[in-house]
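Supplementary Methods. Inverse-folding protocol.

Structures were first reduced to a discrete structure-token string of length 280. This string, shown here, constituted the complete conditioning input.
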């Protein structure tokens, strides 16, 4: 048995509950532990709400859609810029051709060589315009699937955004209900904990931080409800005969043990009415 478990630490005098039953500091401590367990469970339930998981999934999908949309928009912007550039070149080519054609009509008496040069230039401009328009058509064809993808992404985004809104509303409602339970439990816990002896409270908090949130456990029969291990019969017998209010720790896990009403029922001797005991 550890030296800690062998020390007997009497607690302050018990107080009377409104019902008239004597409540020892250990009775209060186990109620604090119960509330701490409830608070932890509520916090876990809040973090693990199905709406929260679904909302995270929807938001992740929306983020992926936004990345696809940004990539598609970048491709479309690049193609649209090229298309605009081609349209400018086509317009410039058409304007130059119109100017040469006017000169050609106005120069009927000009030398044949000059007329031929103008006709050839018009032919070159026509070929260039056709080439530019072919490129422009290719870009228009390339834009079609991008525009279709952007339209589909917009539809998906609208649907997912609506779904996310519904999930947020449902989540807010469930969060609110759990928060109300948490506030009630925390208030009750604070009130109870404030009545504990300072040393007992400090010891409990240290154990609770070290032992997964459970610093005090009920002794049910000969079993610690914290580690779920059985204590030796001799230890149970020793605990049963300690002075009332003595702080007992489990020799298996080190948690503060609070005997339940039937703690000694399975032990070697009949139940003892001295109340919670303390042992090292």
């Amino acid at each position: 048995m550890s030296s800690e478990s062998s020390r007997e630490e009497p607690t302050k005098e018990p107080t009377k509950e409104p019902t008239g039953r004597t409540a020892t500091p250990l009775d209060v401590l186990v109620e604090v532990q119960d509330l701490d367990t409830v608070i932890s469970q509520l916090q876990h339930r809040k973090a693990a709400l199905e709406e929260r998981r679904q909302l995270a999934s929807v938001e992740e999908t929306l983020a992926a859609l936004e990345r696809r949309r940004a990539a598609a928009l970048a491709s479309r912007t690049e193609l649209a810029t090229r298309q605009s550039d081609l349209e400018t070149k086509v317009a410039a080519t058409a304007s130059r051709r119109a100017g040469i054609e006017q000169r050609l009509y106005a120069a009927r008496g000009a030398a044949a060589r000059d007329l031929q040069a103008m006709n050839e230039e018009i032919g070159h401009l026509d070929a260039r315009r056709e080439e530019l328009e072919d490129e422009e058509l290719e870009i228009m064809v390339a834009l079609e699937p991008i525009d279709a993808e952007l339209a589909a992404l917009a539809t998906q985004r609208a649907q997912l955004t609506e779904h996310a809104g519904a999930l947020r509303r449902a989540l807010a409602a469930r969060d609110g209900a759990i928060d109300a339970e948490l506030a009630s439990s925390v208030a009750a816990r604070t009130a109870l904990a404030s009545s504990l002896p300072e040393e007992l409270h400090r010891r409990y908090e240290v154990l609770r931080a070290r032992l997964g949130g459970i610093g005090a456990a009920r002794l049910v029969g000969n079993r610690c409800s914290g580690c779920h291990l059985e204590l030796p019969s001799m230890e149970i017998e020793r605990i049963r005969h300690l002075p009332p209010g003595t702080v007992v720790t489990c020799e298996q896990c080190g948690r503060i043990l609070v005997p339940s009403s039937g703690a000694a029922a399975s032990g070697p001797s009949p139940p003892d009415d001295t109340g919670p005991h303390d042992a090292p």
